[in-house]
Design brief:
Blueprint lengths: L3 H28 L23 E7 L6 H9 L6 E8 L5 H11 L4 E6 L8 H11 L5 E4 L4 E3 L3 H11 L4 E5 L1 E2 L4 H17 L21 E4 H6 L12 H11 L4 E5 L4 E3 L4 H12 L8 H21 L3 H25 L9 H22 L1 E4 L2 E4 H4 L7 H39 L1
Parallel strand pairs: 1-2, 1-4, 2-3, 6-9, 7-10
Antiparallel strand pairs: 4-8, 5-10, 6-8, 11-12
Length: 434
């Protein structure tokens, strides 16, 4: 028998979840339309001759022989004249180097090939490749992407028009995932709904929404001056989730961050099957909480409760109504995100399976790092003690807050000195007047 106290706790818990789901779903439905869709006609703009800002696309690739040719091919076909592509071969052991060199020889004015043959100590392979690409370019804007992303011919032109019209320092265009199996559709549709709880896209451009930040490895467009203000890639040289970290640094520094949808403009195949997605998450999930086990366990419990408790509530009459309200909100969220991600909303019927897979991926990420006492990535091992100093999700906001306080203190001291000197300055002026 269930005690009366547990019954009351269950009822209040289900109603609390229902209120949370109603609040977030209502906000999303009302405000998701505020996020621009640059695939629409109004963004199909052609800059005047000679007025388009210069753009360099930095494409780091390690063992991407299967995909890099298609990626470079779509970049060659871009309808943007002031464009240069830098393909960075990051110590590949397959035919990536050969493919990159072939493209650079065939299109010397559009593509440059750089080969990274060694990795300096204290750098992750990808962040160093991005730093190399940044150093070897001089354009006004830089687009950081991956070696397995496909771009429609107008995608960069539209994104640059959006960046110019909004005076953005950092622009993220949500890629459209290519779904090649049911396991992929199951997980990627769930990520779209879960992401609504992590970052609200409609608040990314709000400088006061400090925790609503964005960064996507497939499409991080930045203004060079803004990146230089941050010190380039060196401060986050050991950041495992480098794309989101860049977004956090931009937002913490008060730079202008923008996000846009672009269905079919940027295509990416995340991984092969649900297993491939779990393997990819193994590196990232534990790093996102700075390798802190209590936070990882808390996040795992939150996901399980948020999505599975409503289903449990359907089995008991007193909690059926709030549980049904939560389930309806989950269904509405799947439908809403499906319209933008192009993933079939019917995967929502199987979302409990995705929740369990996600929970396993979170635990697997934590256990894998603890077993190795570090992360193995792109053939290099990184000890946990070094990674912890560069992967805190809050360190950039704390650093920015300290910088703001120091600046304010400096202004206050300067003002105090001016007030103290003011009588003497006035006496000197009066003597000059006499």
């Amino acid at each position: 028998m269930i005690s009366p106290a547990w019954r009351v706790a269950a009822e209040y818990g289900e109603w609390l979840l229902a209120v949370l789901w109603l609040w977030r779903t209502n906000e999303a439905i009302r405000r998701i339309g505020q996020v621009p869709d640059i695939s629409e006609r109004e963004w199909d703009l052609i800059p005047p001759e000679g007025a388009a800002p210069s753009l360099t696309v930095v494409v780091p690739a390690r063992n991407e022989a299967e995909n890099i040719g298609a990626t470079l091919g779509t970049l060659i076909a871009q309808q943007y004249n002031s464009l240069r592509v830098l393909a960075i071969d990051d110590r590949s052991t397959d035919k990536t180097r050969q493919i990159v060199d072939e493209f650079a020889a065939r299109y010397p004015e559009q593509i440059g090939a750089i080969h990274v043959d060694y990795l300096p100590e204290g750098w992750l392979g990808k962040t160093f490749a991005l730093e190399v690409g940044t150093r070897n370019s001089s354009s006004e804007y830089l687009l950081f992407t991956d070696g397995d992303v496909l771009f429609s011919p107008s995608s960069l032109r539209r994104a640059m028009a959006y960046a110019a019209m909004t005076q953005a320092d950092h622009v993220v265009v949500f890629p459209t995932p290519e779904v090649k199996g049911r396991g992929e559709g199951l997980m990627l549709s769930f990520f779209a709904v879960l992401g609504m709880w992590i970052t609200r896209p409609w608040r990314v451009s709000d400088p006061l929404a400090r925790h609503d930040v964005i960064g996507v490895g497939a499409f991080n467009l930045v203004r060079r001056e803004a990146l230089e203000v941050l010190g380039g890639w060196e401060p986050q040289r050991l950041a495992v989730v480098e794309d989101v970290t860049l977004g956090r640094r931009m937002k913490a520094a008060g730079l202008r961050q923008r996000v846009a949808f672009g269905p079919e403009l940027v295509l990416v195949h995340w991984a092969k099957g649900a297993r491939g997605i779990v393997r990819g998450l193994t590196k990232n999930l534990f790093a996102s909480v700075n390798f802190t086990s209590p936070l990882m366990l808390l996040a795992c419990a939150a996901v399980l409760i948020l999505f599975l408790a409503p289903l449990a509530g359907l089995a008991w009459w007193p909690t059926m109504l709030p549980a049904l309200m939560s389930v309806c909100c989950i269904a509405a969220s799947y439908r809403m995100m499906s319209e933008r991600s192009r993933i079939d909303a019917r995967y929502g019927w199987l979302y409990p399976a995705a929740v369990f897979v996600m929970a396993w991926a979170m635990l697997r990420s934590m256990l894998s790092v603890w077993a190795r006492r570090g992360v193995m990535w792109r053939g290099t091992f990184y000890p946990l003690r070094e990674l912890r100093m560069h992967n805190s999700p809050w360190q950039w906001e704390r650093s920015a807050a300290r910088a703001r306080r120091a600046e304010e203190t400096g202004r206050s001291r300067a003002g105090a000195r001016l007030l103290a000197l003011w009588p003497a300055l006035r006496r000197k002026e009066r003597k000059k007047e006499r």
